[in-house]
Design a protein that fits this description.
The protein contains one helix and six strands. By secondary structure, it is an alpha+beta fold. The chain has one domain. The strands form two sheets. A four-stranded antiparallel beta sheet has the order 1-2-3-4, covered by helices on one side. Strands 5-6 form a two-stranded antiparallel sheet. A hairpin with a 5-residue loop joins strand 3 and strand 4.
């Protein structure tokens, strides 16, 4: 029986999407999601999706104010805002990973 080797996730990474190049390098090249803040805090922060191959990134701010087409606005909790930002970041990461062919630079000894 053959088992696939896994690359350990760096500290703070909440999700990884292996890119096309990552399938050839044992999963080193991936889009990694991190967050700049705590979901239980009072302050909104950012969810970041960054490719370890081409270094392209997408940032989703945790927007707590909601603007409606009617011109009114409402509020969402920091946790709700973080979940929405994570959802959007995961969508971007999945789409980027499906097409990126850039490989991560090998680590030096």
């Amino acid at each position: 029986m053959t088992t696939a080797s896994q690359t350990a996730w760096p500290e703070g990474v909440i999700a990884r999407y292996v890119t096309i190049a990552g399938t050839a390098d044992g999963g080193r090249t991936a889009v990694e999601l991190t967050e700049t803040g705590l979901r239980d805090s009072e302050w909104a922060h950012t969810t970041i999706a960054k490719c370890t191959g081409c270094h392209e990134e997408q940032r989703e701010g945790w927007q707590t104010t909601v603007y409606y087409f009617s011109g009114t606005e409402g509020e969402r909790t920091v946790r709700e805002a973080a979940e929405l930002a994570e959802f959007r970041s995961r969508e971007w990461a999945q789409a980027h990973a499906a097409k990126c062919r850039a490989m991560a630079r090998p680590e030096s000894d």
